């Protein structure tokens, strides 16, 4: 099952737009988008295939850390990871 995982790392300085663009490039192959310009955190939402939410997070965090490293971002701790499955997304659309 596909899961969309939103991951955030927080640190001690403001993230620039150029850094977020680099992160966006690094997560593009994971159907990802990046955020964080102007804040003391950076994040990404990426898609992984996993049997359940816990395993999706376990798969996504190393991918996120690797993408951040390739983007040249500081190695800050991951402070949040949230998942939503494709089934959850469909249920939210159902009135």
Number of discrete helical segments: 3
Shape, per Cα inertia axes: elongated
Query: Per CATH, which architecture?
Result: 2-Layer Sandwich
Q: Walk across the major sheet and give the strand order.
A: 2-3-1-4
Radius of gyration of CA atoms, rounded to a whole number: 13 Å
State the total count of DSSP E strands. 4
Instruction: Sketch the major β-sheet.
Output: 4 strands, antiparallel
Fraction of residues in β-strands: 25-35%
Given helix and strand content, the structural type is: alpha+beta
Might you state the CATH topology name? Alpha-Beta Plaits
Oligomeric category: single chain
Residue runs with pLDDT of under 50 for 5 or more positions: none
Considering DSSP H and I runs of 4 or more, what fraction of the residues is helical? 25-40%
Mean pLDDT: 93
Structure description:
The protein is α+β, with helices and mostly antiparallel strands and 95 residues long. The protein has one domain (2-93): Alpha-Beta Plaits, CATH 3.30.70. The chain has three helices and four strands; from the N terminus they run βαββαβα. The protein has helices spanning 17-27, 53-70, 86-93, and strands at 2-10, 33-35, 41-49, 78-85. It has a four-stranded antiparallel sheet. β2 (33-35) and β3 form a beta hairpin. α1 packs across α2. The longest helix is centred in the middle third of the chain and has 18 residues, at 53-70. The chain is elongated, with a radius of gyration of 13 Å. It starts with a strand and ends with a helix.
Blueprint of the fold:
Elements: E1 2-10, H1 17-27, E2 33-35, E3 41-49, H2 53-70, E4 78-85, H3 86-93
Antiparallel strand pairs: 1-3, 1-4, 2-3
């Amino acid at each position: 099952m596909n899961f969309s995982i939103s991951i955030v790392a927080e640190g001690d300085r403001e993230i620039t737009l150029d850094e977020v663009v680099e992160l966006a490039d690094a997560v593009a192959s994971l159907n990802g988008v990046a955020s964080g310009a102007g804040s003391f955190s950076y994040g990404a939402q990426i898609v992984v295939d996993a049997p359940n939410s816990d395993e999706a997070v376990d798969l996504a965090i190393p991918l996120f850390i690797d993408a951040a490293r390739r983007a040249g971002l500081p190695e800050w701790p991951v402070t949040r990871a949230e998942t939503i499955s494709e089934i959850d997304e469909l249920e939210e659309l159902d009135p």
